[in-house]
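Appendix B, record 7
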Amino acid sequence: MRIGILGLGRIGVLHAETLSGLDTVDSLIVADPSPHAITAAVHRFDAEVADSPEAVLAAGVDGVVIAAATDAHPALLRAAVKADIPVFCEKPLAPTMAQSVDLLKALADCDVPIQLGFNRRFDAGFIAARAAVQGGELGELHTVRSTTLDPAPPPPAYIAASGGIFHDCSVHDFDTVRWVTGREVTEVYAVGGNRGADFIRKAGDADTTSALLTLDDGTIAVISNSRHNARGYDVRMELHGFADSLAVGLDDRLPLRSAEPGATFPAGRPHTFFMDRFTAAYRAELAAFTEVAAGTRPSPCAVENALEAGWIAEACTLSLHEHRPVTIAEVRHD
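Structure tokens (predicted):
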């Protein structure tokens, strides 16, 4: 299988490395405006180089991975679909929800397979948690806690174009809450603070946030996010039901230390970033895409999922700025 990669930033390089290690992938062809990124990819992955995204799409690829900047996603996705090439597109679908809605409408009658990049759906812990909920092991849920704490903020240019912490970071928590519980969010209340990088404050964003979500069956979900976690990269989920409780991410690489005398857990080296925390999930995610591209399985994460998580992010952003509860119905306009 021949796969094209559009964009060789941090996530694009990770995807190139992952794809080059899959037995089903024979070759990669890449495009990126940075000569340095291209040179590095050629040496590291023995990739073929194209001088434009259009050239990648015309090079006989079996599938294409869109890992370019967010503002390029809509045009690249439309071009790939027009060329009848299966697409893997990193989140978010587009820079704004209005653009995402327009794109969804444009793709309404499309039969080209499209998979969105929500990698946590392929993590063993989250998969097991979803199975436990679906199997009734926990009983009816009453509380869900989801955490994403980054070790350090991304660069200022990234923050300026990210759409805010709820769209960029928390959106993974929103997606997994929906996916694991099988429920929809009806209302949110969000708060945020800035105790760290000045450039985040200047961009009108928060560096640490909490969001209280009400699900459609009355379950409460608490989402905690921060750009500053000195001990490492912390991603966890707790699910509390009337019959049992379950945690994702509670292993020896948890970046948290205990204050209890004599406690030795966690005993391992803390996770440092998403690339080591989710290595296996990224591999499973892209292996799934090769099956989607081959036509042997349906997309495991359709375009609609990105919009649903996006509406929650939109509601949280409004709630943060206006200091009030916001319903999903209030913000969605699809």
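Remarks on this record: The first strand starts at residue 2 and ends at 6. The chain has two domains: 2-112, 121-275+309-331.
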